[in-house]
Amino acid sequence: MIVNRKPLTIWERLYLPAIAGGFKVTARHLFRSLFGGKTVTMEYPEQKWAVPTDYRGAPYLVRDQDGHTKCVSCQLCEFICPPKAIKIIPPGPAGPLADRPNAEKMPLEFEINMLRCIYCGFCQEVCPEEAIFLLKDYSLTGLSREEMIYNKEKLLALGGVHGGIQKWKHKLEEAKGQGSFPVKL
Amino acid sequence: MNWNFIIFSLVKIAIVIGVVQGMVAYAVLAERKVSAWIQDRVGPNRCAPPFAKYIPVVGPALIRLGIFQPLADGLKFVLKEDFTPAGVRKVYFWLAPAIAVIPSMLVVAVIPFGSQLGHQQMVISDLNVGILYTFGIVSLGVYGIVLAGYAANSKYPFLGGIRSSAQMISYEIAMGMSVIPVLLIAGNLNLSRIIGWQAQHGWLVLYAPVSFFIFLVASFAETNRLPFDFPEAEQELVGGYHTEYSSMKFALFFLGEYSNMIASAAMMVTLFFGGWTLPFWGLDHPAATLGAGLAQILIFLVKMLLFMLLFIWVRWMWPRFRYDQLMHLGWQRFVPLALLNILVTAVVLWMRVK
């Protein structure tokens, strides 16, 4: 397509209309943001953006409706984690039992190094117990590297309760009905 | 040469330099704030020393306006590493920032920033060739930039230096010729006398509007401000002539640039807008009382600040010219226009004398 460019008139070639137009536009914006308070800036720590529903933030451990640890220390997330941010210490043969019925284990210690985490969400995807979720936290800060390694208590506290399915509950009820208890009540 | 003169001169020099430096710091802040407002942003509004929020009533407003930002900026420049790259021409590399700052400070010496306080004339040096001195000194300013570009031994600063030399020399011609009608009309080179003439006959911008227009545009080019900021066109030249500079040496270029702006604003006020005078309330005579003297200094500062605001405003309004457009405008538009202006003014004056 050929655009016909009209030759500029002498008035236009003096730049003066363009100059006046420039003054008008900039003055309008200046007064609008100075007195009308209409700025596009979001002043961050005071104002925060609405986090999208499918946002992948920091991974935290969650509890079930009854307040039990959902993690069974299977270590799948530890193995899948691309930057090796997760470190799990399983309880071992003599370690403490799970704090919920019908689960065999819970981790002795569960650490996520938030400086290494890349928020990929593999841990959430791979978790067979729906025990770890990428929640909406995005601004993790600390004064030292040690502080940025979150331990089990901190992760559970930050994760809160996630009222999803309780997949072992049905097994437990079945077992109760049959009068046999596979692990413990 | 008596002691009185020396002491008062030193005091005036100290105060003027202090005020100019302070104005530079706050011109940078104004630049950032105005640019922010024009672009619908907020601008610096956080920086504050710990005691600031305990200042009653105005404290939060001052923080919001970023009043303390220049202090932080200055501190940052002082604390940064002063790095001299390998392969620079060291003598010139160290000399250039000084040469960039000194001329713009020297120009302020001849500008009358008030009538008088007591018996002291409010001008550091009441030179009888004031304008010639100014132009002589201003044209030295280009050496700072050219030297910086050459000394850095790097291609982008070098291009910036070359551009600035061509630009500043071209526009100096138009600028110098634009002032000649002013001299013809006022009949004097002394800036105080020119102000005196304007107090009697009215501001020179009414007699020589074309001169003012050319002077205004040329001073934009002389101070390397947009739309003529070729020596430091970031998109084209990385940082321009001061790419290789850091820390206080870089700050000195900044200081020089903004002092230049202040000096040209002061020159425009003095030459075309009656300096420290106002045509009413009897403010056009040298002050008899201390209060009137201070009021006239204030008038001068306000007029100057309005021009500074114009400089800043224009920067965020227009895109940069193309280099050939700049040269075209300078040589083929302003130089003939300035010549014609001189001719017409001279003829009109001649006719009136006859």
Describe the structure.
- The complex is a heterodimer of chains A (185) and B (354).
- Chain A is of the alpha+beta class and 185 residues long.
- In chain A, 29% of the residues lie in helices and 9% in strands.
- Chain A is built from six helices and five strands.
- In chain A, the strands form two sheets. Chain A has a three-stranded antiparallel beta sheet with strand order 2-3-5. In chain A, strands 1-4 form a two-stranded antiparallel ribbon.
- The longest helix of chain A has 20 residues, at 16-35.
- Chain A is elongated.
- Chain B is an all-alpha fold and 354 residues long.
- Chain B has a two-stranded antiparallel sheet with strand order 1-2.
- Chain B is globular, with a radius of gyration of 21 Å.
- Chain B starts with a helix and ends with a helix.
- The chains are: A alpha+beta (185), B mainly alpha (354).
Fraction of residues in H or I helices of chain A? 25-40%
- Strand proportion of chain A, as a percent range, falls in 5-15%
Total helix count of chain B? Answer: 14
What proportion strand of chain B? Answer: under 5%
Report the end-to-end length of chain B measured between terminal Cα atoms.
Answer: 44 Å
Which protein chains make the most extensive interface, counting residues with beta carbons within 8 Å of the other chain's beta carbons? A-B, 15 and 13 residues
Oligomer: heterodimer
Order of helices and strands of chain B: HHHHEEHHHHHHHHHH
